[in-house]
Amino acid sequence: MRRSREVAQESSAGWLRIVITLVVAVLFKQMPWSGWALTLRPDFVLVVVLFWALHRPSRVGMGMAFALGLLSDFQDGMVFGQYGMAYVLGVYAVQYFRLRFLQFDAAQQSAQMLPIFLLVQVLVLVVGWLSGRSPQGINILLPALSGALVWYLIAFAAQSLHGRNALRQ
Fold this sequence. Notes:
The protein is mainly alpha-helical and 169 residues long. It has one domain (2-162). It has eight helices and no strands.
């Protein structure tokens, strides 16, 4: 009985941590960015969704990625489903390579995540072109670089605080 209560408390604490980080990511995305900061702004929601899809795939999966992608579409005024589709593709790629990613430290994970961030940004770019909305041009790929940098910072902090294997499910 005592063990099940501990598991329930750990489970609710895990959900709370996920929800708080997602809310913070949405708020960061909502901040008033301008100039080069806007051009280089990483997709905070994507970074957090992919982080939790890697470390807690039973809790954050493609459904949540699609829902948060629709929220990002609404926030940015894009074609509805553009980010939703891209986020689902990113989560699929992370879950496909999950065991590989978990073997790396923060710097190696960041380097391995860069192609996924680029893939997501390219999909957003292509869907924007197909919908008739002209995207910002090639500058849309710059957030992939800053996303990889933010990934490094988050992964390094998580590994420093919890140990390298503590976040594995």
